[in-house]
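Recall that a protein's primary structure is simply its ordered list of amino acids. Everything else, from secondary elements to tertiary packing, is in principle encoded there. The following example makes that idea concrete.
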Amino acid sequence: MKILITGVTAFVGSHLADYLIDEEKLEVHGIRRPRSRDEFIRKEITYHEADVADYTGVSAIVKKIKPDFLFHLAAQSDVALSWKAPSVTIATNVLGTLNVLEAVRHESPDTIIHFAGSSEEYGLVQPNEVPIKETNPLRPMSPYGVSKVAADLLSQQYCKSYGIKVVVTRGFNHTGPRRGEFFATSSFAKQIAEIEGGRDPVIYVGNLEAQRDWTDVRDMVKAYWLAASLCPFGKPFNICSGRAVKVGDMLNMLLGMASVKIQVEQDEARMRPSDVPILLGDSGRFREATGWEPKVPFEETLEDLLDYWRERV
């Protein structure tokens, strides 16, 4: 059985590769950009260089491998950056997804695709709409959210129009070791590690009132494998813990793990033009289809993330 992962060297892609190799004992291929980081490279993975925004490159790889499963994880996934680089976000996330779908349609129509959507697709959620079900209206509030809605609907359309075997998931916030430093959990953890190493004892933050539903990345990648293996094609599935934590409370949990006393200061540059107040999901449909349950406590996730940055700082 052959697996192909786009975005294999990034946060989720590298964890998924670890899981598929170590737990499922599968043959893993990965698409990486020539300029992508190599910190999480594994000798067991066969790497292929391409940018998902380039159809020719993606198509050639799919034609060569003809994977049994293709996990499409390559994306510009930083919500804050999507405001500064909306065209890159749309090109990578929408055109990249279209290229994957077209490559499979023409070169390997039996391949099962997993499209990794996002809770940011739901955007502006009303108080009476939580916990969020898959039937909730999509009201994205960022260029990133818009890009994921478009790619999500494209995936569903290709399934209905061409019979492409696509499983769509909408993962709520997930974090853990290797998380990029521009995401709130990782930004806080890195700053704490730097302060423990001698930096001025001030941590800079953005909006602390937003509530998010966090899952450990190691639970999330197992969910992705179960989704691709067990879920019916062409309809979305939420993946989430079902527990909302305020960003400020998450920060306090991390500060409680610090070895020094730290002052908190809000940084206007870290505030977004618009932010989603609450993302709390209902993953009942997914759990019924797969039997999945998150295993890693959020406190352990944060501890592992902080230790990850301590090792690097």
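The chain has a mean pLDDT of 96. The radius of gyration is 19 Å.
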